[in-house]
Design goal:
The chain contains 4 helices and 10 strands. With 209 residues, it is of the alpha+beta class. It has 2 domains: 78 residues, Roll (Ubiquitin-like (UB roll)); 83 residues, Translation initiation factor 3 (IF-3), C-terminal domain (Translation Initiation Factor IF3). Strand 5 and strand 6 form a beta hairpin. It is rod-shaped and about 85 Å long.
């Protein structure tokens, strides 16, 4: 019997001579033969199910196999829901793009970012357009500003061949490096000047000026 990628051994599929048995109410029965354990399960109208096969002897429990499989399947589905798949959506443009098309690509980029995806902006240059890289960089700077409320630059790969590639991620997802701790200012300990030795009897100590 299989649930997702996990195979569940039960009843006659459990062929080891001895198991550690847990009863249908959760009570610890102890180590008994798998044959006796299976008979106990049948006497209760339930199944003998292996719940921990990577120990010696394996741990089995008397329970309803159908309900157990359903429970495992439900847990797997819940785990998959919690696993967020982040996609990278590419948006391409040239520095000659008209404002209408630019706004469309900007809206699409915002939509991708707002649903949790990343955006790869590709500014490409055809033929002799490569001589106007500065115009492409100006448009990229505008794009960065226009999307800055929801996204931030994850990395800038610069000019590669005939294109500039830049990656954006939802704002707040980039972990900032911890600020270095301020160096403690230590003052040199004050040195206490030794007291002047006591004057010999009958000798007046010199006055300090």
């Amino acid at each position: 019997m299989a649930s997702g990628n996990k195979r569940v051994r039960a009843n006659e599929q459990i062929r080891v001579p001895q198991i550690r048995l847990i009863g249908s109410k959760g009570e610890q029965i102890g180590i008994i033969s798998s044959k006796d354990a299976l008979q106990r399960a049948r006497d209760e109208g339930l199944d003998l199910v292996e719940v921990a096969g990577n120990v010696n002897p394996p741990v089995c429990r008397i329970l309803d196999l159908g309900k157990y499989i359903y429970s495992l399947s439900k847990k797997e589905k819940e785990a998959k829901k919690k696993q967020k798949v982040i996609a990278v959506k590419e948006v391409k443009m040239t520095f000659k793009i008209d404002d209408h098309d630019y706004q469309t690509k900007l809206r699409n980029s915002r939509k991708f970012i707002e649903r949790g995806d990343k955006v790869k902006l590709t500014m490409f240059f055809r033929g002799r357009e490569i001589t106007h890289v500065d115009l492409g960089r100006k448009l990229i700077a505008r794009f960065i500003e226009d999307i800055s409320d929801v996204a931030e630059v994850e990395r800038n790969e610069g000019l590669e061949g005939n294109a500039i590639h830049m990656y954006f991620t939802p704002k707040g997802t980039i972990k900032k490096p911890d600020a270095p701790a301020a160096a403690e200012t230590r003052t040199a300990p004050s040195v206490k000047r030794p007291d002047a030795p006591p004057a010999a009897p009958g000798v007046k100590p010199p006055s300090s000026k």
